[in-house]
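Handoff note, outgoing to incoming analyst
You'll be picking up this chain. Sequence as last confirmed:
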Amino acid sequence: MSSDRWAKRSAAAGLVNLLLPLRCAGCGLAGFVLCAGCGGRFAELRRVRPPELSPAPPVHALARYGGRARRALLACKEGGRRDLEGPLAARVAVAVREILDEHAALVGTGPVRLVPAPSRAAAVRRRGRAHLVRLARRAERGLPGVRTADCLRLSPRVRDSVGLDSARRFENLRGGVLVRTNRLPPPGTPVLLFDDVLTTGATVLNCREALAGAGVPVVAVLVLANAAREP
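Most recent structure output, in case you need it:
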């Protein structure tokens, strides 16, 4: 980048920060994208076992869905805060390494695919991006042997699940996750399924079934936050 372009970009960034001061997406603290306290909400990987997903691949969550973690995720997903993709992707990368180490016997030594859960096409258009795909691709940069496979999509009949109870979420998604055959990993390639929020488990179950039907095993699931009830 030339010095002139760099100067113009720096000036533009300074003007934006002056007019719209940077604030932490979790707590509003000035001068931070995600402050240490809010970032810490995503720092401890934990195993979750919602009854609806039993039996299922191991599910791991970086945070409990609520408070600061919820505000940060909504800011990234719905609020246009693309600056959160960097810090969140860094935490995803650390979590993926931990999960692969824990499940080394299932993963083996070959390539692994990180498969983002699909969003409705209308939601992607509204947000201007597929946020999980972007997070996965940023996370893979520091993960040798791991690549993102954007190989799932939702049927047009699947509607927005906001406001649906557990039974209706499962009914809404039943058979609604489809594979993009031209993007599928080779059969037998171990997959780590990646989603933002675990609510009822409907998305995880339907993604797993779609991949299993294509001969691709899901060895574990990573979610940014868990909102599901636990026993």
